[in-house]
Automatic annotation (TrEMBL):
<keyword id="KW-1133">Transmembrane helix</keyword>
<keyword id="KW-0175">Coiled coil</keyword>
<keyword id="KW-0479">Metal-binding</keyword>
<keyword id="KW-0862">Zinc</keyword>
<dbReference type="GO" id="GO:0006154">
    <property type="term" value="P:adenosine catabolic process"/>
</dbReference>
<dbReference type="Pfam" id="PF00962">
    <property type="entry name" value="A_deaminase"/>
</dbReference>
<dbReference type="GO" id="GO:0005829">
    <property type="term" value="C:cytosol"/>
</dbReference>
<dbReference type="GO" id="GO:0043103">
    <property type="term" value="P:hypoxanthine salvage"/>
</dbReference>
<keyword id="KW-0812">Transmembrane</keyword>
<dbReference type="InterPro" id="IPR032466">
    <property type="entry name" value="Metal_Hydrolase"/>
</dbReference>
<feature type="domain" description="Adenosine deaminase">
    <location>
        <begin position="796"/>
        <end position="909"/>
    </location>
</feature>
<comment type="similarity">
    <text>Belongs to the metallo-dependent hydrolases superfamily. Adenosine and AMP deaminases family.</text>
</comment>
<dbReference type="GO" id="GO:0046872">
    <property type="term" value="F:metal ion binding"/>
</dbReference>
<feature type="transmembrane region" description="Helical">
    <location>
        <begin position="227"/>
        <end position="250"/>
    </location>
</feature>
<dbReference type="InterPro" id="IPR006330">
    <property type="entry name" value="Ado/ade_deaminase"/>
</dbReference>
<dbReference type="GO" id="GO:0046103">
    <property type="term" value="P:inosine biosynthetic process"/>
</dbReference>
<dbReference type="InterPro" id="IPR006650">
    <property type="entry name" value="A/AMP_deam_AS"/>
</dbReference>
Length: 928
C-alpha cells in the first residue's frame, strides 16, 4: 500500500476545487490559473514536500483542457464516482475490478486496483454521499431504487467474504458520545435548526465563530469571512434549491433564474433588498458579512409566507419539516421515510438528475457553490491527514461538541449511526462532570463539603441516564417484536487534565485545601463522579446492566497514570472499602453492593518518548488492578516500529520528572526483571543521577552520601504516588517545612532527611515542581537506548499477551494521531502477528473511536485492515481468519452482560429504570 500522505495529496489535488474557499465563486480557469490556485490551496490544506511531484499530479488530473469551465468540473465529479464506486452484492462499495479493457474514465481515481486508501483519504475531505449520488444518477438508478436497495449508505470498503463474516456479529467497545455523529447528520441538524428559528442555533454559530481553533483554521485556509453568515447563507441556498425542484416538478418550462425572479417579485422593502443581495452573493461572491442573524431570519420568515402563506401566528409545526416532507413527497410516493435521515441525499440525487436532464447554467452554478461550501465546512469537522497528532484531533473533537451539544439528540444519533444488523454490543463513553472551583484560598470550600456539587452532579447523572434510556427505548420501537436486539451500555470516562505547579504540601496540612496538593482536587472530583455512578447502579434495579464500566480518556500528556490509579483500584473487590468509606464519610452516601464494573483506560497513544508510553501501559496494568479480560484503549506504543520512531524523532523533549520516572522504571526492569542483560546497571544509574542533580541540586543542596538521596528512595517515592494522596497528618509535625529555601526551617536543606517520604512530598512543592516540569531534550539515536526501547516494548507486549488484556485499536483514529506513517504500519499488525510471524499474541479488537471526526464506520475499519493484510501478501483465507479472530475479541471483551435478551426483556428493564429516574427527578424539582 502507498504511504497515506501520497494518497492524501492525490485526493487533495483532485478534490481541492470542490472544498477550498478560493473556488467558491469562480468556475472558469485557464489550465495555468487552475494549477496555480491548486498549488496555493495545497499550502493551506497540506504540505508540499516535492513540488515536482505535486505539479505532475496536478497535470495528470487537470491537463486535458486549455480552459476549465463549469461543465468540466461536473464531468470530473462524474468520472471520480464512476472510477471509485460499483454496486455489488446489494451494496455500494469500492470498485476493485482490475481490467485493462476498462476505459480511462473508469480508472480516474487510481490506475491501480487498490482504491481503498484513496477512499479513506477522500472521505476525510468530502462527504461521500455526493459521489454516491453522481454514481447512482449516471448509472440510471432512480431515487426509489436507491432507497429500496440500500444505495445511499456510507460507501463500503468491505468485500463480500468479509461482509459474510461480519454478519455473524460485531461489537463497538470504544466510541465517545461526542465525536460519534457523522458530518451529514450535523449538517442536516444545523439546517433545520436555522430554518426553524431555534434560539440555540444562534448561540452555537456564535460559539463557532468565536472559537480559537476555528479562527486558526480559517487563517490556515485563507478565509476571512464569518462562518456564521456562510453557513446560514448556504442553508438558505439549500432551501431555495429544494423549493425550485418542487416547483419544476409541476412547471417544466421554468428555469432556476426565472423562478428566483418570480420569487423576488413577491418581496418588498428591506427583505427584497436583502434577498437580491443574497442572490448576488451566490453569483458573484460579493461579501455578505454586513448581514446579521436577524437579516437572515427575516428572509426565512418571508420565504415561509410566500411559499406557505404563513404568518407568525399561523405556524403549525416545524417549517423545515414542511419543506422536507413536501420535497420528498414529490419524488418518493407511498414511503414512510425518516426525512431527516435521507433529505441530504435526496437533494443531491435530484439536483444531479435535474442537471443531467436540463442544461440550466444558473442551477449548476448554485448547486456547485452549495457543494463547495458544504465541503469547506466539512473540513472543520472531519480531520484530514494533513496534520497528525492529538492536539489537532482535539480541535476537531471540540467542534463536534460545539455543534451537537444536545444530549437527547446525541444519544438518538449514535443509535442511528451504530445499531445496524451486525452490531450486537455497543459501549458509549460519556464524560465525567467537571466542577468549578474558587481560585481564592479564603473562599475555598472542600469539594466533599459542598452539597451543591453533590446534588447537582446526581441530577446531571439522572438526566443523562434518562436521556440514554429514552433514546434506547425509541430505537427499540423500530425493531420487530421478540427479536434479539443490540445491547448497549454506558462507560463513564474521566477526562484527564493538567494541574498547575503552585503547590505546597506544608500549607495543605494547615488549611486542608486540596488544590495545594497536585491533582488531589481532580482526584476527589473523579471519586465523587464514580461514587454517584455506583450509587445509581446500586439503587435502581437493572441499572448495573447498562452502566457497565469506567475509562480514563483525553490527552495522556496532561496527567500520568498515577493520578487515576486510586479511583480505578477502588472498583475492585479487594479495595472496595476505600470507595465505600469515602462515599459515606465525605458525602453521606451509602453504597450498596452491585455488579463489577469493567475497566479500560486510554494509554500508550500519546507520549513524549518510547519509554514514557511503555511505562504508562505497564503502570496501568500493575497499579490499576488489571485482571484477565480487561482492556486498554489504543496502546499504539506496543506496535510501532522503534527504528522508524527514532529516525523521525532523534531529539525529543519531555519534562524532567518524566525522564526521571522513565529511568527509575527501566532501572527496576533491569534490577528485578533481569532485562537489558547486555547493558550495565551503572549506565542507568549514571543517567538517573544526572537528572536527579538537575531537579534537586538547588543552591548546592543535594545529599550525596548514604543519608542523602539514593536510587532506592527515589524509586519508592515514585511508587508511592500510586497509593493515593490522602496524606498522614502526623508526618507534618515532624517535617516542619516552610517551602522556602531561605528559611532556616526548610527541611529540604537537611540532607539527612532525604527519605522516600520527603522525595514524595517534593513532588508537591512549587520549588521543585518548577524544575520537575521544565522541558529538557535527549538524543534517542544512541544504540544503547534503541536496544533498551526494543526490549522494554517486547516485555510489555508479552506481559499483556500472557495476562489476556485486550487492546482496543481504532485504525483510522490511530493513523491520524499515532506515530506511524500509514495504515500499512498500523501497530495492530505487530501486536498480533499470528497471520505471519506468529510471534506476538496480544488480543486486539477493532473499533472506531470518533467516527464523526474521522469520517468512518465500524465495518469499514475491518475493511481497511483486511486490505492491508492482502497488500502484505497474506492469502485471503488466512487474512479472513485473522479478522474473524479480532471480531470475536470485540464480542468477547465487552463489559455488557452477554446473556442474550429479547426486545421485550430489554424494554421491561429500561422502562423500570426510566420510571424510577423520572420519579427521582420529579421529587428533586418538588423539593426546590
Amino acid at each position: 500500500m502507498a504511504n497515506s500522505k501520497e494518497n492524501y495529496l492525490r485526493m487533495l489535488i483532485l478534490f481541492l476545487p470542490y472544498l477550498d474557499c478560493r473556488f467558491f465563486h469562480k468556475n472558469t480557469f485557464s489550465q495555468e490559473e487552475l494549477e496555480n490556485e491548486i498549488l496555493m490551496g495545497i499550502e493551506h490544506h497540506g504540505h508540499i514536500h516535492n513540488l515536482d511531484m505535486v505539479k505532475s499530479t496536478i497535470q495528470f488530473y487537470y491537463s486535458k483542457n486549455d480552459t476549465y469551465h463549469l461543465d468540466d468540473f461536473y464531468e470530473m465529479l462524474k468520472n471520480a464516482a464512476q472510477s471509485l464506486l460499483t454496486y455489488h452484492h446489494n451494496r455500494l462499495c469500492i470498485d476493485m475490478f482490475d481490467d485493462n479493457m476498462v476505459d480511462e474514465a473508469k480508472k480516474y481515481i487510481s490506475f491501480y486496483h487498490n482504491k481503498t486508501l484513496d477512499y479513506l483519504e477522500l472521505n476525510k475531505l468530502i462527504a461521500d454521499s455526493l459521489l454516491a449520488a453522481f454514481y447512482n444518477c449516471y448509472n440510471d438508478y432512480d431515487l426509489e431504487f436507491c432507497l429500496d436497495h440500500n444505495m445511499i449508505q456510507t460507501v463500503s470498503v468491505v468485500n463480500h467474504q468479509l461482509n459474510t463474516i461480519l454478519l455473524k456479529g460485531i461489537a463497538e467497545t470504544h466510541t465517545h458520545i461526542v465525536g460519534s455523529i457523522p458530518f451529514e447528520k450535523q449538517w442536516n441538524w444545523l439546517g433545520h435548526e436555522i430554518l426553524d428559528h431555534h434560539e440555540n442555533v444562534r448561540l452555537i454559530l456564535k460559539a463557532i465563530d468565536d472559537d480559537k481553533s476555528v479562527k486558526f483554521q480559517k487563517q490556515r485556509y485563507g478565509y476571512n469571512g464569518s462562518l456564521t453568515n456562510l453557513i446560514i447563507a448556504t442553508m438558505m441556498l439549500r432551501l431555495l434549491l429544494m423549493l425550485y425542484l418542487v416547483y419544476y416538478f409541476y412547471n417544466k418550462d421554468v428555469d432556476l433564474e426565472s423562478y428566483l425572479c418570480k420569487f423576488e417579485e413577491k418581496l418588498n422593502g428591506k427583505i427584497k433588498v436583502n434577498y437580491v443581495k443574497l442572490i448576488n452573493y451566490y453569483m458573484t461572491g460579493l461579501a455578505i458579512d454586513d448581514f446579521n442573524y436577524n437579516d437572515f431570519d427575516g428572509l426565512i420568515v418571508a420565504i415561509e409566507k410566500v411559499i406557505y402563506g404563513l404568518s407568525n401566528y399561523q405556524k403549525d409545526g416545524s417549517f423545515s419539516k414542511k419543506v422536507y416532507q413536501d420535497f420528498v413527497r414529490r419524488f418518493i410516493e407511498n414511503k414512510d421515510l425518516d426525512v431527516n435521515k435521507y433529505i441530504e441525499y435526496i437533494l443531491q440525487h435530484q439536483s444531479i438528475a435535474y442537471i443531467k436532464e436540463k442544461n440550466d447554467q444558473r442551477f449548476k452554478e448554485f448547486f456547485l457553490h452549495y457543494i463547495k461550501v458544504k465541503n469547506f465546512i466539512h473540513s472543520f469537522i472531519v480531520q484530514s491527514s494533513d496534520i497528525k497528532g492529538f492536539l489537532e484531533f482535539q480541535y476537531f473533537f471540540r467542534r463536534q461538541h460545539m455543534i451537537f451539544d444536545i444530549q437527547p439528540n446525541m444519544f438518538k444519533n449514535i443509535f442511528d449511526t451504530y445499531l445496524y444488523d451486525q452490531v450486537k454490543f455497543l459501549e458509549i463513553r460519556i464524560g465525567h462532570v467537571k466542577f468549578k472551583y474558587s481560585s481564592k484560598l479564603e473562599n475555598y470550600e472542600n469539594l466533599y463539603a459542598s452539597k451543591i456539587n453533590v446534588n447537582e452532579t446526581v441530577k446531571i447523572y439522572y438526566k443523562t441516564v434518562l436521556d440514554f434510556v429514552t433514546s434506547y427505548l425509541t430505537f427499540l420501537k423500530t425493531l420487530p417484536s421478540n427479536s434479539l436486539v443490540p445491547q448497549v451500555g454506558l462507560i463513564l470516562h474521566f477526562n484527564k487534565r493538567y494541574d498547575d505547579i503552585e503547590k505546597c504540601w506544608d500549607n495543605y496540612f494547615k488549611v486542608k485545601d486540596d488544590s495545594l496538593i497536585r491533582y488531589k482536587q481532580y482526584q476527589e472530583e473523579c471519586f465523587l463522579n464514580l461514587i454517584i455512578f455506583q450509587k445509581i447502579r446500586a439503587e435502581i434495579p437493572y441499572a448495573d446492566e447498562y452502566l457497565v464500566g469506567i475509562d480514563g480518556a483525553s490527552n495522556e500528556l496532561l496527567s500520568e497514570p498515577w493520578v487515576l490509579a486510586p479511583i480505578f483500584r477502588s472498583v475492585k473487590d479487594k479495595y472496595k472499602s476505600i470507595l465505600k468509606d469515602k462515599a459515606f464519610n465525605r458525602y453521606g452516601i451509602k453504597l450498596l453492593a452491585t455488579k463489577d464494573l469493567g475497566i479500560t483506560y486510554h494509554v500508550g497513544e500519546v507520549f513524549h518518548s518510547i519509554a514514557s508510553g511503555l511505562r504508562h501501559v505497564d503502570e496501568v496494568i500493575d497499579y490499576y488492578g488489571y485482571q484477565n479480560g480487561e482492556r486498554i484503549g489504543h496502546g499504539t506504543i506496543l506496535g510501532i516500529s522503534i527504528d522508524n520512531y527514532v529516525d523521525n524523532h532523534r531529539i525529543i523533549s519531555l519534562p524532567a520528572i518524566e525522564l526521571l520516572d522513565n529511568l527509575l522504571w527501566l532501572y527496576h526492569l533491569k534490577a528485578y526483571k533481569n532485562l537489558f542483560k547486555d547493558i550495565s546497571i551503572s549506565y542507568l544509574e549514571e543517567q538517573i543521577w544526572k537528572i536527579t542533580h538537575f531537579i534537586y541540586d538547588i543552591n548546592g543542596h543535594l545529599g550525596g552520601n548514604s543519608e542523602g538521596i539514593n536510587i532506592h528512595h527515589l524509586y519508592l517515592a515514585y511508587k508511592k504516588q500510586f497509593a493515593g494522596l490522602d496524606f498522614v497528618k502526623d508526618e507534618y509535625y515532624s517535617l516542619n517545612c516552610e517551602a522556602n529555601f531561605s528559611s532556616k526551617n526548610c527541611i529540604f536543606k537537611n540532607s539527612k532527611n532525604w527519605n522516600e517520604d520527603l522525595l514524595f512530598y517534593s513532588r508537591h512543592c512549587r520549588c521543585f515542581l518548577k524544575k520537575m516540569t521544565r522541558m529538557i531534550q535527549i538524543d534517542t539515536s544512541d544504540e544503547t537506548i534503541i536496544n533498551i526501547y526494543k526490549e522494554a516494548q517486547q516485555y510489555v507486549i508479552n506481559k499483556i499477551a500472557y495476562k489476556g488484556i485486550i487492546i482496543e485499536t481504532n485504525p483510522v483514529s490511530n493513523a491520524n494521531i499515532g506515530e506511524f506513517n500509514s495504515m500499512n504500519d498500523h501497530p495492530i499488525f505487530l501486536m498480533n502477528d499470528s497471520f505471519d510471524k506468529d510471534h506476538n499474541h496480544v488480543m486486539v479488537s477493532v473499533n472506531t473511536d470518533d467516527p464523526g471526526v474521522f469520517g468512518t464506520t465500524l465495518k469499514n475499519q475491518y475493511g481497511f485492515i483486511l486490505q492491508v493484510l492482502i497488500d502484505k501478501g497474506v492469502p485471503m483465507e488466512k487474512a479472513l481468519k485473522w479478522i474473524d479472530m479480532t471480531r470475536e475479541n470485540g464480542l468477547n471483551s465487552t463489559f455488557i452482560n452477554r446473556t442474550k435478551k429479547t426486545k421485550k426483556e430489554i424494554e421491561e428493564e429500561l422502562n423500570k429504570i426510566k420510571r424510577i429516574l423520572e420519579e427521582k427527578l420529579n421529587r428533586r424539582e418538588d423539593n426546590k
